[in-house]
C-alpha cells in the first residue's frame, strides 16, 4: 500500500475548462496508485498515502458525486466530504481526485457513462439553470459556483450549453416561467430546468405555467430537476422518501438524481378562493390579486397553525435562522402572551368539509387548530406529516385537529418529527377548548378535496391566512378556499425522481 504517489495537479487554478470534460483545480489531488494497492470494500475506497504506510486515505460511497473517465486516461472522482461542524462554513465543497486506476466494482457503482436525455443538448433542447438567490439561507449561488458548474463541466456540459438565471426579485421565477418556459412548452420545445431552490421555486414555476391556461395542443412539459437549496425542501425530501442509507447528503442525492433519475409527471393541487382573496408578500405589506382566484401547488394547502407559522416566519430576520426559523416562530404562536401569562393558541373558526366523490363530509367542530391538505409525505426531511403518501401517488390527504393547548399541539408536531407517529393520536380536550372533556383525535384521511368556509370576523385577515406551498394568502371576511387535485393528464411539468 505504500506505493501511492501524489503527482501535481495539471492546472493549478480554479477555472474549469469549457470544452474538456476533465476537471482539474486547486482542490484536485492526483494519485498514481498501483491497482493492487487500492481497496474497495464495505462501500469504501481506500489506499495508503505516500508519506506513511500506516496512514490510509478513505473515500466513502456516500461522499461520491460522480466518477468520470479522463480523455488522457485515468479517472476523476468528484466528491463532497461531510460538512464541517463550523456554522460559518458552507455545508458543501466539491473535491476532486485524479487516479490512474480504480477497482472494477467501484467503477461499476460510480462511473458516469452518458448524459441523460434531459441533460443532452444535442437535439436542440433548451437547458436552464435557475439559481434562487434568496432561497434557504442564500446558499444557491455558492452551490452553483462551487458544485454544479464544475460537475456539469466534468460530464461534458459546458456553460455555453445552458442559460443561467439568477433571481433578482420575488417575481423572477414566475416571470421566467410565464415568458420563456410557457412559450417553449406551447411550441413543443423540450426544456429542462435545474432548480437551485426550495419549494418556492417550484410553486412559482407551476403557477407561471398554469395561471393563464394558455396550453397549446403541442404543449411539451418542461422537465424540472430539484437541487435542495431551500429551507424545508418538502417536495425534494418527499420524492426521496426512502433515502438511500448510503447517501447522507441531500446535495449528493440531488446530483445523482440529476444524472441517473427518471422524469415523471408531477401531481399538482389547485386551491380556489373567494374573489377578495389576496397573495400576501413583502412580509405581509403587499397584497396582490390572484389570477382566476386560483393558485396551484405540488405540496400543501393549509389553514390554522401551519399556515400562520409559515407566514409569520417568512421575514428577513427569521430567514437568517434557516430551518430553525419555524421553531422560533412556533414558540410565539403556540404560547402567546395572554392577560394572565401564557395563553392557548388561537382557535381558528371555520366550517371544514371533506370532499369524497359526491359526498360532502362536514368536520363536526367549529374551531380548529390545524387543517392541512397535502400531496406529499414530508414537509421537511424529518417531518413526516403524511406517512401514507408515496412519491407521486397523486392522492390528496388531509391532516386535521381541533383547537387545543400549545403543549398538546407540540406533542402532535413532535410525533410527526418522530417518523409520522402522530397518526392515530388521541387526547383529552383541555379546559377552555371547544372539545373540553371529550376525546380529541387527530384526523387523517384520503380525500378528493377539502372546502374551508372562514368564519373569523373582522377586516384584518390575520386569522384567515392560508398557505399554498409557502405562498401566503389572506382571505376576506366570509370567504372560502376549495382545494382539489388537478386531474391526471393536466400536469404541467415532469420532475426527475431517483427511480
Ligand atoms: N433575489 C430575490 N429577491 C426577492 N425574493 C427572492 C429572490 N430570490 C428568491 N426570492 C424569493 O425567495 C423565496 C424563496 O423560496 P424557496 O421556497 O425557494 O426557499 P425557502 O422558502 O427557503 O424553502 P422551502 O420553501 O423549501 O422551505 C421565493 O418566494 C422567491 O420568490
TrEMBL record:
It comes from the Eukaryota. This is DAGKc domain-containing protein. Residues 122-275 form the DAGKc domain. One of its GO terms (biological process) is sphingosine biosynthetic process. Residues 11-28 have a biased composition (Polar residues). It comes from Coleophoma cylindrospora. SUPFAM superfamilies: NAD kinase/diacylglycerol kinase-like (SSF111331). One of its GO terms (cellular component) is membrane.
Amino acid at each position: 500500500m505504500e506505493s501511492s504517489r501524489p503527482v501535481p495537479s495539471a492546472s493549478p487554478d480554479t477555472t474549469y475548462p469549457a470544452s474538456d470534460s476533465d476537471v482539474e483545480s486547486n482542490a484536485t489531488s492526483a494519485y498514481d496508485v498501483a491497482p493492487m494497492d487500492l481497496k474497495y470494500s464495505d462501500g469504501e475506497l481506500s489506499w495508503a498515502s505516500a508519506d506513511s504506510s500506516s496512514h490510509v486515505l478513505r473515500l466513502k460511497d456516500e461522499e461520491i458525486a460522480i466518477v468520470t473517465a479522463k480523455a488522457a486516461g485515468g479517472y476523476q472522482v468528484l466528491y463532497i466530504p461531510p460538512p464541517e461542524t463550523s456554522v460559518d462554513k458552507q455545508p458543501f465543497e466539491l473535491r476532486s481526485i485524479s487516479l490512474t486506476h480504480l477497482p472494477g466494482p467501484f467503477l461499476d457503482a460510480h462511473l458516469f457513462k452518458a448524459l441523460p436525455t434531459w441533460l443532452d443538448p444535442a437535439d436542440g433542447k433548451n437547458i436552464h439553470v435557475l439559481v434562487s438567490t434568496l432561497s434557504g439561507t442564500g446558499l444557491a449561488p455558492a452551490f452553483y459556483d462551487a458544485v454544479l458548474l464544475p460537475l456539469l463541466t466534468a460530464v461534458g456540459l459546458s456553460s455555453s450549453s445552458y442559460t443561467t438565471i439568477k433571481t433578482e426579485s420575488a417575481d423572477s421565477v414566475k416571470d421566467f416561467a410565464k415568458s420563456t418556459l410557457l412559450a417553449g412548452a406551447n411550441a413543443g420545445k423540450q426544456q429542462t430546468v435545474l432548480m437551485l431552490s426550495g419549494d418556492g421555486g417550484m410553486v412559482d414555476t407551476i403557477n407561471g405555467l398554469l395561471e393563464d391556461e394558455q396550453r397549446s395542443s403541442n404543449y411539451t412539459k418542461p422537465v424540472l430537476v430539484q437541487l435542495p437549496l431551500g429551507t424545508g425542501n418538502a417536495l425534494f425530501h418527499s420524492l426521496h422518501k426512502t433515502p438511500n442509507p448510503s447517501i447522507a447528503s441531500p446535495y449528493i442525492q440531488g446530483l445523482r438524481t440529476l444524472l441517473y433519475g427518471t422524469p415523471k409527471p408531477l401531481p399538482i393541487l389547485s386551491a380556489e378562493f373567494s374573489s377578495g382573496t389576496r397573495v400576501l408578500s413583502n412580509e405581509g405589506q403587499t397584497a396582490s390579486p390572484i389570477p382566476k382566484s386560483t393558485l396551484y401547488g405540488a405540496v400543501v394547502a393549509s389553514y390554522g397553525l401551519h399556515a400562520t407559522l409559515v407566514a409569520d416566519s417568512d421575514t428577513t430576520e427569521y430567514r437568517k435562522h434557516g430551518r430553525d426559523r419555524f421553531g422560533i416562530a412556533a414558540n410565539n404562536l403556540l404560547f402567546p402572551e395572554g392577560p394572565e401569562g401564557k395563553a392557548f393558541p388561537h382557535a381558528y373558526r371555520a366550517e371544514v368539509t371533506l370532499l369524497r366523490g359526491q359526498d360532502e363530509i362536514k368536520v363536526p367542530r367549529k374551531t380548529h387548530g390545524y387543517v392541512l391538505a397535502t400531496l406529499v409525505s414530508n414537509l421537511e426531511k424529518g417531518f413526516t406529516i403524511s406517512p401514507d403518501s408515496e412519491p407521486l401517488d397523486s392522492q390528496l390527504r388531509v391532516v386535521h385537529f381541533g383547537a387545543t393547548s400549545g403543549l398538546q399541539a407540540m406533542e402532535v408536531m413532535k410525533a410527526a418529527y418522530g417518523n409520522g407517529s402522530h397518526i392515530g393520536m388521541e387526547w383529552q380536550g383541555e379546559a377552555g377548548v371547544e372539545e373540553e372533556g371529550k376525546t380529541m383525535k387527530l384526523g387523517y384521511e384520503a380525500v378528493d378535496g377539502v372546502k374551508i368556509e372562514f368564519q373569523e370576523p373582522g377586516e384584518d385577515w390575520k386569522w384567515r391566512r392560508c398557505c399554498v406551498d409557502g405562498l401566503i394568502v389572506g382571505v376576506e371576511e366570509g370567504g372560502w378556499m376549495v382545494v382539489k387535485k388537478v386531474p391526471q393528464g393536466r400536469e404541467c411539468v415532469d420532475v426527475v425522481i431517483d427511480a
